[in-house]
Design goal:
Blueprint lengths: L12 H60 L2 E3 L6 E3 L5 H4 L6
Antiparallel strand pairs: 1-2
Length: 101
């Protein structure tokens, strides 16, 4: 019995190179996407960390205002000079500002 020779069929070199280029480009894009997703994840972590820091700073601010109210009573504090005005000396519009303790 005669041994059959295997016939090899090949696509053209240009077609092969085109497929290889497309596959390589896709792999590079997938890698870039992964890096982008990682940077997005890190940015989200930083965003939540900053939000937490803002909440903590707001609470510290309120705590300091409470301490100052306990020490000086209800006053308006000028944050530029540190001077304060007792509540009874304030006009109604000024008494409603957030800096009033």
């Amino acid at each position: 019995m005669a041994k059959k020779e295997k016939v090899t069929n090949k696509i053209e070199q240009k077609e092969l190179e085109n497929l290889q280029t497309l596959r390589s480009t896709n792999a590079q894009n997938l890698n870039k996407l992964g890096l982008l997703e990682y940077r997005i994840l890190k940015a989200e972590e930083e965003k939540w960390s900053l939000k937490e820091e803002i909440v903590n700073t707001d609470q510290q601010y309120l705590d300091v205002l409470k301490e100052l109210q306990d020490k000086y009573g209800k006053v308006e504090i000028d944050l530029e000079t540190g001077e304060f005005t007792p509540e009874e000396e304030l006009t109604p519009e000024v008494a409603e500002t957030p800096e009033v303790v």
